[in-house]
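Example record used in the benchmark description.
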Amino acid sequence: MSFNSEEDIAQHLIEFLSNDKDGQALLQRFKSKILDDESILINILQTYFHTEVLDGRIEKIVNIARPHIVNILPPNLKLEKPEPQNIPNSGVKFTGRELEIEILHQLLKEKGRVVVYSEENSTGKTELAIKYAQLAWEKKVYPGGICWLNGKRSDLKDQLIEFAKSKLELPIPEDLDLASKVNDFWSKWSKDDVLIVIDDVSISKYERLRDFIPLEDQHFTLLITIPYQSVDDRLLNDNFETLDLSPPEKDFLPSADEDTKDTEDNFIYVLLTTVILLVIVSGISVFVSYELVDSEPWSAACSE
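Model output (structure tokens):
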């Protein structure tokens, strides 16, 4: 099937999506101007329409389709409210570290602010944060929501506003500047416990955002991971508790090769000690034998 224009794609897309409940829910999001997960639409366009997805093309197709959706949807269709969380999926199989997860949970509940770091430059910090956030969401530890911010990106405030619109469906006034939008967002968010995760963030980015984070609000819990080998004093001044994921010192955790070498050394030592003792005992036995032969009873026996 070939399409001559975005208008042609939009028309066939509406017909395609209107055939089942999931498609109708997606159309309802188009109608409400909520497109929080483009991956679903990208997959449909690529799989069923064999259409290249270029920058800006999805938005153009949706804008063309939107005016024509009204007459397609059932009048009483109810759209499920999105979950107030945007925890990323991990591509890594996470095993172990149950103790670290429990320690992290206790620190967050007791102190409200935790920074995770490690002497090694690895993905362990991020994976631990993802696993904790997933478990916390499953157990409803933070019913107000879990907001995940990618610290590598420069648009941390924009990420907050996007979360407010797509996951919380909060009305954010467009005539406000970015800082005012963020403050408006905090004031409208649920008063239930909330977890904010800022992953792999530099100190400079954190400082630019810190004035907009409600650090004094007790129902906001903050977890950050940093790409450093130690914790900056500026975080300590903000009363962050620390969790170090660095491996134990080598002296306290010998490797398998070192264990094998120690075993071999011990065996050689025991073997040499045994041989020396046998030589000494044998020498003593020979000496005693000669002494006994020269004694009177033995001398008498020999002379007979």
